[in-house]
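Support request, priority: normal
Reporter: lab tech (M.K.)
Component: structure prediction queue

Hi team, I submitted a job for Aminotransferase class I/classII domain-containing protein from Streptomyces rubellomurinus yesterday, and the status page still shows it as pending. I've pasted the exact input below so you can check whether something in the sequence is tripping the parser. The sequence length should be 426 residues. Please let me know if I need to resubmit or if it's stuck on your end.
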Amino acid sequence: MHRITPAPAQAECLTAFARLRAGSPADAFEIGEGCNFYPPSPDLGRHLGALLHSLAAQGNLSRYRDPFKGGAKAAFADLTSARLGIPLTAQDVTFLQGGTEAASLTICHLAATGHSLTLPIPNYYGFDHSAGRWGARVAAYYRHDGAVHHNRTLLRNRTALVEVLPNGVTGTFFNRPGDRPDFTLLDLVFQVGAHHEPLALEAAIQSRVRALDLTSSAVIMTASKDLAMPGLRAAAIITRNRALQQHLTADAFDRAPTSAPLTSLLMVLYAALLHAVNGPPENLDKRHHMAQQIVQDHGLPPLPDTATTHRVQAHLDGMARRFRSNSVLLTEADSPLTFADGLAPTAGYSAFPRLRLDEGDFLGWVRRCGANGLRLNPTVLHAGTAAAWTALHPGRNLRVNLSESAARTATGLQRLHAELERSRLY
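Reply from support: The job had stalled in the queue. We restarted it manually and it finished. Here are the results:
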């Protein structure tokens, strides 16, 4: 008789998700879905379409080999090195199919090498899910001010800290917990879309990356959120940790021994845009010319021209203005929401305000809202455990998506008002 290995325990946040969504109609109005709804740049769409046509015409979608012979990794390394001020080579870069895959594979390696994890809260559920899937012990959770909740789990000898900068749910910067980890995984989820000071966001990213020792850390970059293209799964891991690099390479060979050239070119394009638009505006032309030269030197198709890059920058500026205006709308005098100290978003499309009113059984109220056709995304859906949320975030926080149109955001707030009024009638 064969022994059946039991499936790993499901992360608490996923169990909570299923419970809170039960009874909610399929056409319910949702506040706080985790996706960038700002339309992607038409210029980038045309450029990527032309690249796809060219790759197909040249037969480069029909072969397993890398048509650029490592040139895409080298260009990405050079562009990122020039922007962040750290020395990088092609050997430090691995391209993957999205940030979720990058995080999952890194956590798999950390579990195999005996690391316990310290995770931020709130956070993308995938980190908790991957920890459960790969058998990584979550030793602790920490919030924006660095306060820590330790789990009752048998700790391993090595520790790994996950940082998400800015946090993908709150849009804020978190203070790191006090203890120095053996390994750091830094996930750079928003690198454009600053609400007020784009140069300050860039300075914070540069400062944090420069402080890392890449032999004991890894940096994830993904184009999906900033460029509003989650359907194109593209990410890069930057690390000099050879054991992690070998793990990533072996996994890629197991599953798909092909080069995915469009993914590679999208990450090069993303790195070039970050290099060009994340500096002083008066230097954009010069920085774009430098990026174009790097791409040419590595034998890659040219980037969009300077005029197109200016239009893309204007498009990204418009996206940031929408994030900012919706954030302001959330906290107007008649809004049922407010931001706690340290949780007003600074970048990205996500915010995590709290209800001004005490609704008693908060999660029960969320379930009733769902049954009435209004889906909400409260605390417990965003990673962690019930114990960690009680210790670190006992308030009644809801995720709100700042990338929606102003009209849809206003409608969401009106419906939230209506549900609060309804609850006070019972």
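The longest helix spans residues 306-330. The mean pLDDT is 91. Let us know if anything else looks off. Ticket resolved.
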